[in-house]
Design a protein that fits this description.
single chain; 72 residues; mainly alpha; 3 helices; elongated
Length: 72
């Protein structure tokens, strides 16, 4: 269950990153949601969350390669 949660949160973070960096919401376009205007601050926050999502994938990969939990 933890692994599934980790992947879902990471996928959501990457989605926000795509919105922040490119201004494109692929999930919204699939389901026909109207586009929303975002301020520059909104896009910066989404981009930061997207970077965190990429880092989360890295942490998950390192954890699975080493077979142990990463703690800092």
């Amino acid at each position: 269950m933890r692994r599934l949660t980790w992947w879902l949160v990471t996928a959501a973070a990457i989605r926000l990153g795509i919105i922040g960096f490119f201004g494109f919401d692929f999930v919204g376009s699939i389901f026909g949601s109207p586009t929303v205007e975002m301020s520059a601050l909104d896009r910066v926050v989404c981009a930061i969350v997207g970077i965190a999502g990429i880092y989360a994938i890295y942490l998950l990969a390192v954890k699975e390669m080493n077979g142990k939990v990463i703690e800092k």
